[in-house]
Specification:
4-stranded parallel beta sheet; alpha/beta; 116 residues
Length: 116
C-alpha cells in the first residue's frame, strides 16, 4: 500500500487511488457531489480541541503530532475502520488546510506507516 496526501482543492486524478477525506469538518467551497471521495474518515480526524490548539503553528507541530497519535491510540474502533478502508493499492489522504506539510493528513500518514 502506498499512502499519499493531497489538498482536496487539487484536481482528482486516477493515480490518487482510493481517496479518503481526513478532516472533521467538510471543506469549504467543495460540493459533496464533486468531491470524489471514497470515504470520509471523520472519526480519526483530530479533535476540535486539538485542532484549535494547534492552529497550524509550526512551533507546535511535534507536540500536535504526539497528541494526535495519542488520540488515535485511544480510538481503536476509528483506526480499525480507517484501516478497513485503505485497501492494498494507492490511497490518498485528503485535507483542506493551506499548510501542505504540517497538517493532520501528514501526521495520519506517518501514524499509518509506523503501525503497519
Amino acid at each position: 500500500m502506498q499512502v499519499r496526501t493531497k489538498r482536496i482543492y487539487e484536481d482528482s486524478n486516477p493515480a490518487d487511488g482510493r481517496r479518503i477525506l481526513v478532516d472533521r469538518l467538510w471543506p469549504r467551497g467543495i460540493a459533496k457531489s464533486n468531491a470524489r471521495i471514497d470515504f470520509w474518515a471523520k472519526s480519526v480526524s483530530p479533535s476540535n480541541e486539538l485542532r484549535r490548539w494547534y492552529g497550524h503553528d509550526p512551533e507546535k507541530w511535534l507536540e500536535f503530532r504526539e497528541r494526535y497519535f495519542e488520540e488515535l491510540d485511544s480510538n481503536p474502533d476509528g483506526v480499525s475502520e480507517l484501516r478497513s478502508q485503505l485497501g492494498s493499492g494507492t490511497v490518498t489522504l485528503l485535507y483542506s488546510s493551506k499548510e501542505t506539510r504540517l497538517n493532520n493528513a501528514s501526521a495520519l500518514k506517518d501514524y499509518i506507516e509506523s503501525r503497519q
